[in-house]
Design goal:
By secondary structure, the protein is α/β, with parallel strands linked by helices. The chain has helices spanning 5-8, 14-19, 40-51, 64-78, 92-104, 119-127, 147-151, 176-188, 242-256, 261-272, 276-298, 319-328, 355-366; strands spanning 27-28, 87-90, 110-115, 131-136, 158-164, 192-196, 218-223, 236-239, 311-312, 331-332, 334-335, 347-350. The protein folds into two domains: 5-38 and 276-366, Aspartate Aminotransferase, domain 1 (Alpha-Beta Complex), CATH 3.90.1150; 40-272, Type I PLP-dependent aspartate aminotransferase-like (Major domain) (Aspartate Aminotransferase, domain 2). It binds 4'-deoxy-4'-aminopyridoxal-5'-phosphate (PMP).
């Protein structure tokens, strides 16, 4: 039996491969999920919904209360005018990304993606029949996707751009002018700009800007996994220009029908409930980031100070060797080339692990003979 070429060409995520190597005593710094518990009021809301028997299909787009709450959130926090009719509740940001790319990419269309970047971008573009064009995010630019660099990659076949700030795997955060510049390019060249804002709240001393406040050509993607430690709920959302919503909905509807009913209730509770646990989580992430960066620099490893997300992306001559040696000491890291060709020469540490485990891991890395 022969699989489709466009699927065959996709690698299974390098991060997943690292998971297979996790031993019982390993410290796993390969994980892209918060180590915190989902706040209790969110879990209580699910119990309540379950007891009320809220266990059936919902509208394909998602329950109206949640889409109304999201519409307010987008207006108040992101300066995006998005009516509930232009919002689709999805199975995580992953579902939002998949439905979006499949709705508008034609065979052979080019989509510019950040490199190093989140592994799903290249995969979703390829599954949709498109071709991804990597935009090199450089250490010296703090891994920002610069509008001038992007311009050089645009061809007559370019259909879309994917941006991600704060970014995985680098922790890079775009400045206001970068975001404005990218939005202008989308307008000038009539391109769709997909903005993955899943780490918007996990940001240190910088401000998050959404390109949809500057351009109508934007699909904004977000989710609850990171901000509220809700990875297992599989709940996210998107808002798109009106002329694309219906087609995105077709893909969403014929793949998942609707997001899980109980997870939608959980998401509503997350939006409407207290936000202090989010602030506490971010402040703990910042403490860990500072410690990890300082320890790595003390070891002579070059490492940018990331301004968002929960990853550091240091550079080193032979990251494969480091990752292998670290594994022998039961510390699981991810080699940078798992995130694209320009991730070469780097490795990723997720600091979504306890301070204590991170300190232990730094001790073990320090003891390596490289
Ligand atoms: N975008 C980025 C940049 C991510 O890092 C992740 C998760 N690792 C996702 C999207 C997917 O998140 P979700 O759990 O909402 O599908």
């Amino acid at each position: 039996m022969k699989p489709a070429e466009r699927v065959k060409s996709i690698d299974l995520s390098g991060i997943r491969k690292m998971f297979d190597m996790v031993g019982e005593n390993s410290i796993n710094l390969a994980l892209g999920e918060p180590d915190f518990d989902t706040p209790i009021h969110i879990r209580e809301a699910v119990k309540e919904a379950l007891d009320e028997g809220f266990t059936h299909y919902t509208s394909n787009m998602g329950i109206i209360e949640l889409r109304e709450a999201l519409s307010h959130k987008l207006k108040n926090e992101n300066h995006i005018e998005a009516s509930p009719e232009s919002i689709i509740v999805t199975t995580g940001a992953s579902g939002a990304l998949y439905s979006s790319t499949n709705a508008f990419i034609e065979e052979g269309d080019e989509v510019i993606i950040p490199d190093p970047g989140f592994v799903a971008y290249d995969a979703c573009v390829k599954i949709s029949g498109g071709k991804s064009v990597p935009a090199h995010l450089k250490d010296e630019n703090d891994f920002r996707l610069l509008p001038e660099d992007l311009l050089e990659l645009i061809t007559p076949r370019t259909k879309a751009i994917i941006m991600n700030s704060p970014g995985n795997p680098t922790g890079g955060v775009l400045e206001k002018d970068d975001v404005k510049g990218l939005a202008d390019i989308a307008d000038d060249h009539d391109l769709i700009l997909i903005s993955d804002e899943i780490y918007e709240k996990i940001i240190y001393g910088k401000k998050h800007y959404s390109p949809a406040r500057y351009s109508d050509n934007v699909i904004t993607i977000n989710g609850f996994s990171k901000t509220y430690a809700m990875t297992g709920f599989r709940i996210g959302y998107l808002t798109a220009p009106p002329e694309l919503v219906e087609d995105i909905l077709k893909v969403h509807q014929y793949t998942v029908t609707c997001a899980t009913s109980l997870s939608q209730k959980a998401a509503l509770a997350a939006l409407q409930g207290p936000q202090d646990e989010v602030r506490e989580m971010v402040s703990e992430f910042k403490r860990r980031r500072n410690m990890v960066v300082e320890r790595l620099r003390d070891m002579g490893i070059k490492c940018n100070l990331p301004h968002g997300a929960f990853y550091v992306f240091p550079s080193i001559e032979n990251p494969e060797k480091l990752v292998e040696k670290a594994l022998e000491k039961d510390v699981v890291l991810v080699p940078g080339n798992s995130f694209g060709k320009y991730g070469e020469g780097h490795f990723r540490i997720s600091y979504a692990a306890s301070f204590h485990d991170l300190e232990k891991s730094m001790d073990r890395l320090e003891s390596l003979d490289l």
